[in-house]
Amino acid sequence: MAVRSALGRQGKGQFKDTKPDELLTAFLKSTIPKLNIDPALIEDVTVGNVLLADAGYIARAAALTAGLPHTAPTQVVNRFCSSGLMALSIIANRIRTGEINVGLAVGFEDMSATPDNGAPKMDEEIMANQTANDSTMPMGWTSENVAGDFHITREEMDQFATMSQTRASNAHKSGLFEAEIVPVEIKSKDPATGAVSRITVSKDDVIRHNTEVNTLLKIRSAFPQWPPSQTTGGNASQNSDGAAAVLLMKRSRAKELGLKILGKHVATSVVGVPPRIMGIAPAYAIPAVLKLVGIHQDDVDLFEINEAFASMYVYVVKTLGLDVNKVNVNGGAIALGHPLGCTGARQVATGLAELERRKGKVLVTSMCVGTGMGAAAVFVRDP
Questions:
Q1: Nearest-angstrom CA–CA distance, 348 and 262
Q2: Hey, which of 1, 57, 318, 357 has its CA 20 to 30 A from 47?
Q3: What angle do CA 322, 323, 325 make, to 5 degrees?
């Protein structure tokens, strides 16, 4: 199983009145019936989350409330934007070593309730180290550095952003996302009366339909203080709320249970890059994981690369020479949003669903990671 919730715009969207514990509990309640197994078979739950100070408490309480038994332990992992993928990799590796047979990987973020306030103040010695200092800088600064250092134009950035929005809009309107989205029931507050009711959320509200390049080109820079000042609210990932989950187990166990196998997690690679140009990381993480598994990028049918900023999206596609018709074919984070802890698992749900539609074989997911890191993973679809 690889599924996600619909995604909601931070502060203004469908999850704006939903607290983090409520969102995770509601998502897990909707997900458990999709497991098609007795929840008692789950031997570990790993949750990727970035912003919640109390994530360990919330993960455990939400899992128990949603219907997972007390025998299924939980843990939280935080490697910034790759946290959902790290959760998946941890579960996969525990299965590989024989420590467990069945595990659930979850990624979630409620950015409406826990906005990203950036790095805390640090010791003078750290701030005197230029590279360490760079790792504490806002991500918008790193986007501008990528654009400036590698001569990426504003036009290129807005063209890629428009492509993301158009693809996501088409996928939304044609119902493609229905295969990966589980409807979630949440509380909603009427802004006029304050009355609280329960609603079911099943469609993304983050996509900006009918986006055009000329419109994006008119948007002012979000970071005029940092040249070349080309990053805008139109060509960067949106902050959003959402969750995703992936069920993993040994092939032999899946066959015993009569389950359809969606695909195989083959390997994950994590790399470090200069923090000031954080966004270039997928251009290093992708070759690293492909080398690890012994295949060439031409063997890959689909890429899901997190669109943190259009500058990094353009850089990665151009540097690796990727076919844009294989990359984020249903849009990426510029259109769908980037709920930090959720994205790594969300990309797997989106990618495997599309791989199944195309009857393809190999999926690669990747993302740049805050503070100067990157991650990538290879999945192979079962025919």
A1: 11
A2: 357
A3: 140
With b for 16 or more beta-carbon neighbours within 10 A and e for fewer, the 68-101 pattern comes to beeebebebbbbbbbbbbbbbbbbbebbeeeebb
Q: Could you give phi then psi for residue 264, rounded to 5 degrees?
A: -125, 130
**Locate tokens 């997911």: which residue?**
365
The answer for residues whose C-beta is within 8 angstroms of residue 168's C-beta and 6 or more apart is 204, 207, 330, 331, 332, 335, 336
Q: How many residues does the chain have?
A: 383
Choose the catalytic residue: 172, 265, 338, 342: 338
Confidence category of residue 254, pLDDT binned at 50, 70, 90: very high
Alpha-carbon separation of residue 277 from 50, 143, 231 (angstroms): 21, 7, 14
* Cα–Cα distance for residue pair 355/92, rounded to 1 Å: 20
| 81 catalytic per annotation | yes
Mean pLDDT (whole number) for 75-87: 98
User: Rounded to 5 degrees, what are φ and ψ at 13?
Assistant: -95, -165
Supply the pLDDT for residue 191. Answer: 80
Number of C-beta neighbours around residue 7 at 10 A: 32
CB 94 within 8 A of CB 100: yes
Residue 243: which H helix or E strand, with range? strand 240-249
The distance in angstroms from the start CA to the end CA of the chain is 16
Of 81, 172, 265, 342, which residue is the catalytic one? 81
Q: Do the bridges between strand 240-249 and strand 263-272 make them parallel or antiparallel, or are there none, so unpaired? A: unpaired
Q: Which two tokens stand for residue 123?
A: 């010791």
The pLDDT tens digits for 13-42 are 999 999 999 999 999 999 999 999 999 999
The per-residue pLDDT for range 356-365, each reduced to its tens digit, is 999 999 999 9
Prediction pTM value: 0.97
Say whether 151 is catalytic.
no
Residue 370 has which token pair? 């805050």
Is 265 known to be catalytic?
A: no
Phi, psi of 236 (to 5 degrees): -125, 160
- Active-site pick, 172, 265, 342, 368: 368
Report whether 263 contacts 355 (CB < 8 A): yes
Buried b (16+ CB within 10 A) or exposed e, 306-319: bbbbbbbbbbbbee
